[in-house]
Amino acid sequence: MPRAVVCLPTYNEHENLEPMLRALGDKGVRILVIDDNSPDGTGELADRLASELDYVDVLHRERKEGLGPAYLAGFRRALADGADLILEMDCDFSHDPADVPRLLAAAEEGADLVLGSRYVKGGAVRNWGVLRRFVSAGGSFYARVLLGTQLRDLTGGFKCYRRRVLETIDLDAVDSKGYAFQIETTYRALRAGFSVVEIPITFADREVGGSKMSKAIVAEAIWKVPGLRLAALLGRL
Ligand SMILES: Nc1nc2c(ncn2[C@@H]2O[C@H](COP(=O)(O)OP(=O)(O)OP(=O)(O)O)[C@@H](O)[C@H]2O)c(=O)[nH]1
Ligand SMILES: [Mg+2]
Questions:
Q1: Residues lining ligand 1, judged by CB closer than 6 Å?
Q2: Residue 234 C-alpha to ligand 2 middle, in angstroms?
Q3: Local structure of 99: helix, strand or coil
Q4: How many other CB atoms are found less than 10 A from the CB of residue 103?
Q5: What's the half-sphere exposure (Cβ side, CA atoms, 13 Å) at 91?
Q6: Whose CA is nearest to atom 16 of ligand 1?
Q7: How many Å apart are CA 17 and CA 15, to the nearest integer?
Q8: CA-wise closest residue to 8 among 51, 45, 232
Q9: How far is the centre of ligand 1, averaged over its atoms, from the C-alpha of 91 (Å)?
Q10: Distance 94 CA to ligand 2 centre (A)
């Protein structure tokens, strides 16, 4: 089985971290917790759990800079450690640990990048209000039209990359911080000619802890998408 590493970014996920690490324990993956010095002590808890659970590693970062930089640091570490498959996943149970084997299987069957998708047949969102549904579905629609792709869920963060994808796309050039990071990495993979496959997932709103979603994150995605298309048209991407 190829070595798979789940990159798990955390910021104030003290209540979710231990159940999440345990739920992933039988999935045959290593887990890299990427904590940005969470004030609630998530980083210290991660260290304690890593000394108990041999499939867990921890990457501590000095400060919160958004999801994008945290993932990039995680990807670099996972590549350096020799991972064949690198996954992204939220630590708030919005992404179901039970879906991890399906993402891995799709990559093993040949997809270069697998997206857990809420907006394909069989996918769903649970417990989100009308506004959140609108922002999320609208964001994916906006990105799909502007970027000219057929993909339905471009903002989701439950993904599995084959190593060669992350080795090929220019990680140093990726500068998105929030949802735009998901759009940008997928678009760069498409532009580089990699196959991207969506598999249905049910996304559930978090039950504990607070969301880090902000207006700035939405605004970044709105301006970043046309910028990506323009860069592609100018042959810079
Ligand atoms: N290391 C790190 N992790 C982060 C940062 N921002 C969010 N996270 C983590 O990334 C995952 C997704 O963040 P959420 O707070 O759920 O944000 P979201 O999924 O965009 O928003 P909701 O859908 O409202 O929950 C969670 O595991 C967070 O703890 C960050 O700046 N640094
Ligand atoms: Mg979330």
A1: 9-11, 13, 34-36, 64-67, 70, 90-92, 94, 206, 211-213
A2: 34
A3: helix
A4: 26
A5: 30
A6: 211
A7: 6
A8: 45
A9: 8
A10: 6
Q: Give pLDDT < 70 ranges for the chain.
A: 1-2
Sequence letter at residue 109: E
Dist CA 186 CA 192 (whole Å) = 10
User: Candidates 20, 21, 37, 67: which one to mutate for ligand 1, based on the most atoms within 8 Å of Cβ?
Assistant: 67
pLDDT of residue 1: 59
Q: Which two tokens stand for residue 18?
A: 């231990």
Q: Which of 206, 190, 126, 103 is nearest to 154 (CA)?
A: 190
Q: Which residues of 177-194 are buried (b: 16+ CB within 10 A; e: fewer)?
A: bbbbbbbbbbbbbbeeeb
**Contact present, 125 and 170 (Cβ < 8 Å):** no
203 Ramachandran zone, left/alpha/beta (phi>0; psi -120 to 50): beta
**Alpha-helix runs per DSSP H in the chain:** 14-23, 42-52, 67-80, 100-108, 130-147, 163-168, 179-191, 215-233
pLDDT digits (tens, 9 = 90+) for 71-104: 999 999 999 999 999 999 999 999 999 999 999 9
Rounded distance between C-alpha atoms, residue 102 and residue 214, angstroms: 30
